[in-house]
Amino acid sequence: MKLFRWILKISWFALLPATVYASNGKMDSGDTAWMITATAFVMLMTPAGLALFYGGMTRHKNILNTIAMSFVAYCVASVVWIVYGFSLAFGPDIHGIIGNLKYFLMKGILPNSCTGSIPEFIFSMFQMTFAAITVALISGSIVERLKFSSWILFSLMWVSIVYVPIAHWVWGGGFLSNLGVLDFAGGTVVHINAGIAGLIFALVLDKRKGFRKVAMPPSSVVLTTLGAALLWFGWFGFNAGSALASNGSAALAFINTNTAAAIAALSWMGFEWVKNDHPTVLGAASGAVAGLVAITPAAGYVNILGSLIIGLVSGALGFYSVSYLKFRFDYDDSLDAFGVHGINGIWGALATGIFADPKMSGSSGLLYGNLHHFLVQIFSVVVVIGYTAVATFIIIKLVDFITKGLRVSEEDEIKGLDIAVHTEKGFEL
Fold this sequence. Notes:
Ammonium transporter fold
């Protein structure tokens, strides 16, 4: 019955504050130093790691535009977060749905204000980097054909309307948090959210000119591999930093993160080798990212065996999604944001409800006799998919109306967006 009561609460919005998420604690210099470092790690993931990972996979005529989409998404999310996003995500709770505007423009937060044992400014910055990479991930589904102006407006609206409420539901004292959802570092908030949004956007925007008819080779697998390595590096801050302290939970998340990424890279490459008679560097890099995605919600909850299983399956799921699923259903998820992040975000969320080990964190999954957590994980996945899909579709239609069309002209798409939009070249060929 508790689940159904929360379902009803999603359908209406109240304006009376109930509880406060942020707490005043005693600042710890070790925890603070670690969280500043972790925040810098995660910041690097968007304008550097993801930008290069995506940029290298696009055709040479669109590499700068693809990089710019990640770069500008980081900028937009940074401003939105500081002005009102943080307050709505982590401010005093309004009946499990959203925070209020207590911290508008970071009002009332001082250098000695703490969340747990770290400064609240650092907590806010850490959470901001998550908002930035989430919206930037969506670009992987729709590169090479979207107006840059449409992307900027979409980023602003999507962070505000989709990311912020979901972050509150899971991490800010919202209804999913109260149900006991397990999402250590963003499998639901980040990866399912971005993957589903990317799929909806790709379906509405339609395919690139020549999709499945002409070759669309990546401009630089070298850049993509470098980007994957930077993402892997930054993910240590992403997952281990989500412990919000320099402690054993951070250490567990750190080792689980590396383990899952490594075996997922081998898994993807192995399936590719069997199917295509050769391994590719692109496959190994994509597999590592798939493993990082899948372990994200489970990083601080599962043991080493759990991380190995999660990573192994994620490599297989990623390869299957990229090599079969999108061609079977004929949609143009350009750089496989849905195939890697959406599919493996779902797997990671469900796997957390299966493999969570009470010896690691006190939270137990299905394998340890806790059916409730597994059902809550299923419920959270369904809720986030439903909300993200509907809200993203509405935002896309609004952006389409405001910018008088989402797509660049056919002439510009053929010419390439680097020259058409930015009057610059990524490569001199």
